Sequence to fold (237 residues):
Amino acid sequence: MDESHPSRWVYLVGTHQARPVKIGVANDVEVRVRELQIGSPVPLYLIWKTRGGQALERDLHERFAPYRIHGEWFDFGDENPAALVATAAVLMGYVTHAERAHVEHDYVAPRIAYLTGKKSLINHLIDAANTTGRGNVTKQEVFAYMASVDLSYVRVEGESDRLYWSRVGRLLAATMVEQMLDVPVAQLTLIEGQPRVRGFRLNDLQEVLAELLERRPPRRARRRAVRATSIQRSRPA
Fold:
C-alpha cells in the first residue's frame, strides 16, 4: 500500500489548543496553511507532516471517521493527534517519513509538544502499544509514535530507509540502557501466514513499569528515608 510521493505531503494543522485538527494533503504545506489562515478566526499552526498523497489522506479520513467534526476536521480530544495519525499510517501499511513541523510561532500546544522529558520511555512504549489496540506494538510502530513526540526519531532529510532504521534502533536501545529498562523483545504475528515481526507486548511493558514503580518508593517515603539516614549519621558513636 506504500506509495512514493516525493512532492506531496499529508499534514496536520491545528489551533493553539490542538483541537480540532485538519488532515489534508498539499504540495506545499506552508502555502496551504497560509491559505487556510485567511478564512480562520484563530491562528493555525502546522503540527505534523509526512510524505504522502491522496491515498494516505483518504485512508486516514476513513479510519478516523468517528472523530470527524466536518469536512477534513477531526477532534481527538486530549489525545496527541500527531501520535495517533502517525501510528495509524503505519498500521495501514504506509511507511511514514515524518518531518519536523516548520512552526514560525513561539507557542506549541502542550499535547503536541516534542518533550519526552515529561515521560520516561516506558510510558511512551505503553502509549504506543495502547494506540494499536492489539495489545502489542511493532518496532516500526514504536518509531512512528516516537517521531511524533521526540524530534530525535524524526527522519532527517535525505536519510535512507536503511540508515534511518539503524539510527533510531540504536537510539531506542541506548535509551533503554540509560533508563535501565529490561523489556523483552517479542516476535509478533500480525497476520496469519505472514512473517513475524519484532516488537513489544503490552503486558510485558506494563510489568516493567510496575517493577520500576516498586523499585522507587513514593517521594515522601524517600524523603523520610534520607532524613533518617542523615540523623543516624549525625549521632555520635
Remarks:
- The beta strands are 9-14, 21-26, 45-51, 68-70, 73-74, 98-99, 136-138, 186-188, 197-201.
